[in-house]
């Protein structure tokens, strides 16, 4: 049996980034994707995710800076515009605006702290009830365009509609069992999102991942200036995000979502979530038509600390990077996987849990 160098299982953002980073280090990459191109079964479909620097954890602010540099590098190499800067606003007492601005400035971000009145003058379509952080580096990234650009840069061979059913380490690499037969790879990268734990039952105890179905809703803005991204940690305890996607604003709740599995999800939008988000728009975003113009669902693969899992067991590298906020780190995730493939250690925060 011929042995491939590196097999990547899953062609979402993390899988595509891994393919590109590994190929840059001289590795030959083959990708196995369970579905057809452009499918909507995972977490990487659509054309809009938030890029932001605003974390209350310095660890993630530092990582977003590294990721931002890599985004520009991928854009330069591919000739594609993948990240559109819009500026972003964070508000709500739980966002700790004064501390957030201080942390951002410590990391070189020219963030500003506005009063509610100043913010309303800049963005009259939003209601503010306290201090607001303006982050000029926030923007919107395009997942599907990014996957295509990363894949083209990688030169990887892709097997679409080829689900990997089982992985079997054999002492010289890993056997990949598919419906078309068994293949062998010296190293396997599992970037399969909600399918990760079922594919790696022997590592389940080290992978504290839960899978949930979330949804996002689209609202039509009135006339006026372009909208920024928004993150609001309201006094009601709901963390709401909003970002422009085409002519609409995409709005959703940041939480694990309704428990499910990657295989069992029903794609049915939760009516209670629709009601909550619509009520939120009516109260806090008067610049939008409060009647949803569209809706969608996706999978959240959640780690309880909202961190990621990027670690290695033998010849298998796991890259489960989501918790609802992984997209902005895409090109950096690939580099972290490539570091592991080169024999480096994982970042402690992303190592397997016991």
From TrEMBL:
Domain spans labelled FAD dependent oxidoreductase: 5-340
InterPro entries found in the cross-reference section: FAD-dep_OxRdtase, FAD/NAD-bd_sf, MTOX
A Pfam short name: DAO
Cofactor requirement: FAD
Keywords in alphabetical order: FAD, Flavoprotein, Oxidoreductase
Signal peptide: none
Keyword Translocase in record: no
Protein name: N-methyl-L-tryptophan oxidase
Organism annotation: Actinocorallia longicatena
């Amino acid at each position: 049996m011929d042995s491939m160098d590196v097999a990547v299982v899953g062609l979402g953002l993390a899988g595509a980034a891994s393919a590109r980073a590994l190929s840059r280090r001289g590795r030959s990459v083959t990708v196995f994707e369970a579905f057809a191109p452009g499918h909507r079964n995972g977490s990487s479909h659509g054309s809009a995710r938030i890029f932001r620097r605003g974390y209350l954890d310095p660890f993630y602010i530092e990582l977003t800076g590294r990721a931002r540099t890599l985004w520009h590098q991928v854009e330069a190499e591919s000739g594609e515009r993948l990240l559109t800067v819009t500026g972003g606003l964070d508000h709500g007492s739980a966002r700790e605006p004064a501390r957030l601005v201080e942390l951002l400035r410590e990391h070189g971000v020219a963030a500003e702290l506005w009063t509610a009145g100043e913010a309303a003058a800049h963005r009259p379509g939003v209601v503010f009830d306290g201090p607001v952080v303006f982050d000029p580096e926030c923007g919107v990234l395009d997942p599907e365009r990014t996957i295509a650009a990363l894949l083209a840069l990688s030169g990887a061979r892709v097997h679409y509609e080829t689900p990997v059913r089982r992985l079997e380490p054999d002492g010289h690499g890993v056997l990949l069992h598919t419906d078309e037969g068994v293949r062998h790879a010296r190293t396997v990268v599992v970037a399969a999102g909600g399918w990760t734990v079922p594919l790696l039952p022997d590592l389940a105890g080290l992978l504290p991942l839960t899978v949930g179905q979330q949804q996002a809703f689209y609202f039509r803005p009135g006339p006026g200036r372009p909208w920024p991204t928004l993150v609001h940690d309201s006094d009601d305890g709901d963390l709401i995000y909003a970002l422009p996607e085409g002519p609409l604003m995409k709005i959703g709740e940041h939480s694990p979502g309704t428990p499910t599995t990657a295989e069992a999800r029903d794609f049915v939008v939760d009516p209670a979530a629709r009601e909550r988000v619509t009520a939120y728009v009516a109260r806090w975003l008067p610049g939008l038509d409060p009647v949803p113009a569209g809706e969608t669902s996706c999978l959240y693969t959640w780690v309880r600390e909202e961190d990621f899992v990027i670690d290695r067991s033998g010849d298998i590298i796991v890259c489960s990077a989501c918790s609802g906020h992984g997209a902005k780190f895409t090109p950096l995730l690939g580099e972290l996987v490539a570091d592991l493939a080169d024999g480096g250690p994982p970042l402690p925060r992303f190592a397997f849990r016991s």
